[in-house]
Design a protein that fits this description.
Elements lengths: L1 E13 L12 E13 L11 H13 L19 H16 L4 E11 L2 E5 L10
Antiparallel strand pairs: 1-2, 2-3, 3-4
Helix pairs in contact: 1-2
């Protein structure tokens, strides 16, 4: 089994509705996002998945959030812009891009700071299994 990971960042503001503390007011983060795909085999030139392709796919998703108030971007206008919800939403948007590639999305990790991260593992029944 191979794991291929890409790390990208975006800068954005957010706030947590209903939170009793500082995070209830708008504040910003340099979010770091790590997407990891798994593949059983490599292709004819020895790649499990092309780093540049995964980087572009993740970039298209993160561009929607970069330099925005995440709470203003659907679906976060209806659900809380927590790191947990951001990780799950990125996962749900990235999964369809991987269909038919012989890979499956293993996890999406979202760091709000160098010390604080959430990792979301998609339901294996919902991913394209190699």
């Amino acid at each position: 089994m191979y794991e291929v990971s890409i790390r990208k960042h975006f800068d954005a503001a957010h706030y947590l509705r209903g939170y009793q503390g500082k995070c209830e007011t708008i504040h910003g983060h340099r979010y770091e996002v790590v997407a990891t795909v798994r593949a059983r085999e490599t292709d004819e030139i020895g790649l499990a998945y092309d780093f540049s392709v995964l980087k572009k796919q993740l970039g298209r998703i993160l561009d929607r959030l970069d330099h925005k108030c995440v709470n203003d971007v659907p679906p976060f206008d209806e659900i809380n812009a927590s790191a947990e919800n951001i990780a799950r939403t990125i996962c749900q948007q990235l999964q369809p891009m991987l269909q038919g590639t012989g890979t499956h999305l293993h996890s999406v990790q979202v760091f709000e700071s160098p010390d604080s991260a959430v990792t979301y593992f998609p339901d294996e029944a919902q991913v394209d299994q190699p």
